[in-house]
Amino acid sequence: MAKDKTLAELAGEARDYADLRIDELKLKATRGLSTALGQTLAFLLIFAVLALVLGLLAFALLQWLNGLLGAPWGTLIVAGVFLIVLAVLWLLRQHLFRDLFVKLFIDVFYDNDAAAEEEE
């Protein structure tokens, strides 16, 4: 009978341990996802503000060039500048965007865990 009680206690402790490990994984996932979401929202906010500023600057440049060169030429020059910038961004999209987000998520999900374990 003592052996059965010991096995039952061992099974209960194993169940408790598994529940604790699951809770730890949930907490780590929540922390990582909230950090990633916060940084993504910060990037989106910065992007929105920069897009607004860029739009207003482009409109001001367009008006100035239209006054200097005539109506259609200022518009075409600004559109050409945007097309060149778009082409450069398209060519560098992997380096600028994908690599940046891969590094961000690696930092969020792996490096923070290593730093937290070193503190303990």
Protein model, in words:
The chain has 120 residues and is mostly helical. It is built from three helices and no strands. The chain has helices at 2-69, 71-91, 93-119. It starts with a helix and ends with a helix. It has one domain.
Percent of residues in helices comes to over 70%
Intertermini distance? 41 Å
Q: Estimate the strand proportion.
A: under 5%
Number of helices: 3
> How would you classify the helix and strand content by structural class?
mainly alpha
* H/E element order: HHH
Oligomer: single chain
Q: Count the beta strands.
A: 0
Biggest sheet features: none
Shape: rod-shaped
Q: Mean pLDDT score, rounded?
A: 83
Runs with pLDDT <50, length 5+?
none
The number of domains: 1
Radius of gyration from CA coordinates: 28 Å
What order do the helices and strands come in, and which of them pair?
Layout: H1 2-69, H2 71-91, H3 93-119
Helix pairs in contact: 1-2, 1-3
Features:
120 residues, 3 helices, 0% strand
Quick rundown:
The protein has 120 residues and is an all-alpha fold. The protein is built from three helices and no strands. The chain has one domain (2-119).
